[in-house]
Design brief:
By secondary structure, this protein is mainly alpha-helical. Helices cover 76% and strands 1% of the residues. Bound molecules: geranylgeranyl diphosphate. Residues 31-32, 34, 66-68, 70-71, 74, 81, 99, 103, 126, 129-130, 133, 157-158, 195, 198 line the site of geranylgeranyl diphosphate.
Length: 309
């Protein structure tokens, strides 16, 4: 990961001062760097040790960071990675444009790796991520959203980049088609588990640990699994309260809604759904030879579900 950080730092540079300032601001705030870890761990688990793995790991982190910059504008978020968001600090226009810089820099770096399959995986992944965000926008303020439609959004907007990261490790290592698909399955399941926990933490987490504000999903009228389960299991009055909050994006009722979400076991149900996805990911690891990297991937499954940030 030190090597990845070095690539990130060197590829961030731009002659335009504001780009340097904002990209260093958001990248410097850290982040868990899960997606680059997936690239490195799958490459290592499958025996690939070439320097391209650092470039690819940095590429997926740049794409991830570009999506965060854009997402915080779309969601009007104020806190990210424990700091004021770039949009709150530098404004929406600057955030969107620096997101574009990071995104297009990632594509320059992909070209330098000179492998058509890498370009294909990342071009497809970024396109699906954007589709996921548009789908989510269309689902906003809809309390009648079906669970399958909610799951589709999280597979697109979040799990796709996890899937691409794991797949790229396999591509670098020259894995055959079946093994590449197995690695992609791992990433997809882990990413789904990760987003389910993200949606859970938006209700039960603590802003100072999360590094972002809790309750943002309700404020935006986002129908996530904790609310879907609470509406299914709650009383008529509970359902009416939650429906109204989703339709109007109301944060005032957060304490009452939190109580309903807890009392109906909706948080536990969401965590259990995440655990089932993480178990699916773990099951894939049997295809990998026993190694330090495989153990680290196992650890990542556990930590992605049992986390507070
Ligand atoms: C630029 C390709 C492109 C698309 C723009 C706005 C948008 C379309 C996509 C947003 C997708 C998005 C932000 C999904 C949520 C993913 C998620 C759970 C982010 C948080 O990830 P962490 O916790 O963040 O890994 P850290 O801060 O640890 O890096």
């Amino acid at each position: 990961m030190r090597q990845v950080d070095a690539v990130i730092r060197s590829r961030l540079s731009s002659q335009v001062a504001l780009i340097d300032q904002i990209s260093s601001y958001i990248v410097g705030a850290g982040g868990k760097r899960i997606r680059p870890r997936l690239v490195l761990l799958f490459a290592e688990a499958l025996g690939f040790e070439g320097p391209e793995r650092y470039e690819l790991a940095a590429i997926v982190e740049f794409i991830h960071t570009a999506t965060l910059l854009h997402d915080d504008v779309v969601d009007e978020s104020a806190l990210r990675r424990g700091r004021a968001t770039a949009n709150a600090t530098f404004g929406n226009a600057a955030s969107v444009l620096v997101g574009d810089f990071l995104y297009s820099r990632a594509f320059q770096m992909m070209v330098s790796v000179n492998r058509m399959r890498v370009l294909e995986v990342l071009a497809d992944a970024t396109n699906i991520i954007a589709e996921g965000e548009v789908l989510q926008l269309m689902n906003m303020h809809d309390p009648d959203l079906a669970v399958e439609d909610y799951l589709r959004v999280i597979r697109f907007k979040t799990a796709k980049l996890f899937e691409a990261s794991a797949r790229l490790g396999a591509v670098l290592a020259g894995a055959d088609q079946a093994l590449e698909e197995a690695c992609a399955d791992f990433g997809r399941s882990l990413g789904t588990a990760f987003q389910l926990v993200d949606d859970l933490l938006d209700y039960e987490g603590k802003s100072d640990e999360l590094g972002k504000n809790v309750g943002d999903d309700l404020r935006e009228g986002k129908t996530t699994l904790p609310l879907l389960v609470a509406m299914e299991r709650g009383s008529e009055a509970d359902r009416a309260l939650i429906r109204h909050a989703i339709e109007h994006g109301e944060l005032q009722k957060l304490p009452e809604i939190l109580a309903i979400v807890r009392a109906t076991g909706a948080l536990d149900a969401t965590r259990e759904a995440a655990e089932r996805e993480a178990d699916k990911a773990r099951a894939v690891l049997r295809f990998l030879p026993e190694s330090r990297a495989r153990n680290a991937l196992l650890e990542l499954c556990l930590r992605s579900v049992h986390r507070s940030s």
